[in-house]
Amino acid sequence: MREATTISEYIASTAAAVEDALQSALPAGWDVPVKLREAMMYSLNAGGKRLRPMLVLAAAEAVRGERDAADAAMPIACAIEMVHTYSLVHDDLPAMDDDDFRRGKPTNHKVYGEALAILAGDALLTHAFYCIAQAAKNGRISAGTALAVTEDLARLAGAPGMVGGQAADILGEQGVTSLSELEYIHLHKTSDLIAFSLQAGGRAGGATDAQLEALARFGSNLGLAFQIQDDILDLVGDEAKLGKKTNSDVERLKVTYPYLIGLEASRAEVGRLTGDAKKALLSARLAKPERLLQIADYLMGRDH
Amino acid sequence: MREATTISEYIASTAAAVEDALQSALPAGWDVPVKLREAMMYSLNAGGKRLRPMLVLAAAEAVRGERDAADAAMPIACAIEMVHTYSLVHDDLPAMDDDDFRRGKPTNHKVYGEALAILAGDALLTHAFYCIAQAAKNGRISAGTALAVTEDLARLAGAPGMVGGQAADILGEQGVTSLSELEYIHLHKTSDLIAFSLQAGGRAGGATDAQLEALARFGSNLGLAFQIQDDILDLVGDEAKLGKKTNSDVERLKVTYPYLIGLEASRAEVGRLTGDAKKALLSARLAKPERLLQIADYLMGRDH
């Protein structure tokens, strides 16, 4: 990756590097049914902010203070993007959120059909673990790091993490009433993978236990702020910039932060959580924390 | 596990030990939505032959020649049963095979709804990788074994393995015509996880590379024989013993071995493949191959 100066340049160059790495993440020599490979790559290549892989790479670099750390962490960055992508493909299914468009493009099942969309999601999730194990085999990360990252991912993407948050969200459609219930959903559906990304990047960069703990707190707060900002943008955002319809939460009678505590209080909460995140990060005494701090500010101010 | 003498006793006592271990595989202390946990355990506890975990345990014991080897391999045995179970939950979905019953019980989505069935499957797949990583953390298997097993599982259960076979099966419903196409489906949909089980058990037992290769060949042949036997039983089996309707392949116009080469030739093929499997196994010079040989004979003669 080329050295970037501004945060916008950093985001763009990191996203490009991740997208480049994703192209060869599924070995070309593997005998995979053409349509399945296509369906997997369709959603992997559907754009998005590439936030989670960027956090992996930025955390690795922040801990070690060297750009090489980001290269070592790239397989983990690809893995988390695969997990995030699979979760979107499954979330969009008719039996779940039933979405026809994502980021302005038809969703996976609209293009490939439900059966293949389910299987493409399954294959992406499975392949994430392959990428991590391979990174150890190729010597890019240590065996200990690969195992710790595998365990973290399986927990934070699994029943007590992301899938749990999604299940609570679906079960709660019959009536989420309290802020604590909504916080459970947001924390697990969104924050857990963001916290994972920061910790995993930290592990690849050789972080101490105290630094890993601080990165996880940074991630948890940042993730919750990110999700509340999403709720806000769904209410007041610009459809063209978002690449999806606004007011979808209202139409689905989804309980959100603005619904529960109001728009202004939600905005204040985003600010407070971002502040807490930055405080947690600064306590970690990382070699080069600046980029992560910039990302936090950028996310708070984003309009898409 | 108690020492078993006959193969029937061995199968029963192994299944009981696996079922016992599965009860605590998902940590009780984890904050998981109650319905999600229920949906996961419903399908994990829905019975079945527990063939794949049995092969893991039997392979570990065959390589090391000691019963203790099976105990070390138990987390891998649980992991493969979770992957197998998730694949059944997703296969049964309306968008896939649309089955209402499995092993005489309502399928997961009939009890918990489609959304939760998709998520329960996702969570089971994810948790399989947790079990393997944890086994290394707890010192039951080495870090090297855990990483190799993770990589094998992610490949053989993923796009070039089980999911690829399932995708080919679904795509082929528009017309599988050749034996080689059908063999691709069977090999990946069924054999890959069976070969994985034998190799993973072998790794846990400390097998040499040559032994791992022989176990994989044993597994591949055994898996293909197993699937052809399934095709045969769907045609001529006893519904009460099978716990599902026979002739479902015919009703769905599914192309099977009996359809392509006839019933008698299919039976002969099961015999030939089982023989090849046993020959491959004997070439590995395992410490105690007897149980694996008995399992091969048992599977060939089974009526359910």
TrEMBL record, chains A, B:
Its domain of life? Answer: Bacteria
Gene Ontology annotations for the cellular component aspect, listed alphabetically: cytoplasm
Top-tier EC class: transferase
E.C. no: 2.5.1.10
Cofactor(s) listed: Mg(2+)
Give the Gene Ontology MF terms in alphabetical order.
(2E,6E)-farnesyl diphosphate synthase activity; metal ion binding
Q: Kindly indicate whether the keyword Transferase belongs to this entry.
A: yes
Q: Which SUPFAM superfamilies match?
A: Terpenoid synthases
Q: Name one GO biological process term.
A: terpenoid biosynthetic process
Does Transferase show up as a keyword for this record?
A: yes
A Pfam family cross-referenced in the UniProt record is polyprenyl_synt
* PANTHER family hit by this protein: FARNESYL DIPHOSPHATE SYNTHASE
Question: What protein family is recorded?
Answer: Belongs to the FPP/GGPP synthase family.
Q: What is this protein called?
A: Farnesyl diphosphate synthase
Q: Which organism is it from?
A: Paenibacillus darwinianus
